[in-house]
Amino acid sequence: MLYFKNTILLPAFLLLFLASFSSVALATFDEVALSSPQQPALALKTIVLFYSKQCPHCSYVLDYIKNNHLDKKYNIVEKEISADQGNHSEFVKTIKACLTANKANKDTVIELPVSWDGNKCFYGEKEVLSYF
Length: 132
Fold this sequence. Notes:
Layout lengths: L1 H34 L9 E7 L4 H12 L6 E7 L4 H17 L12 E3 L4 E3 H8 L1
Parallel strand pairs: 1-2
Antiparallel strand pairs: 1-3, 3-4
Helix pairs in contact: 2-4
């Protein structure tokens, strides 16, 4: 009779031991997975690009942005200024602010396209592309 009890008790004990170990291991894994800090999604820098449909330099910059997938690296807000009066008004305000902030002189040449990163304006194809 003692043999029968040991035969049942030993496997039962092993089963309980393994079950408790696996639940501890799973709990530890879950705690680590849940408590691990996740990398926050980085916000893309916003660039406002003022352009005109009739401007060949603007078309080149827009194609460059598209072909090089720069919209994945930056939040590019395109503002067409020749047909949209609201965009044109915003363009004029932005240019005035940039010229004032940078203490531009009367010889400053403003060329399209114009990009603005929130701090500085970039005028013309070469300057805009040099930003990227």
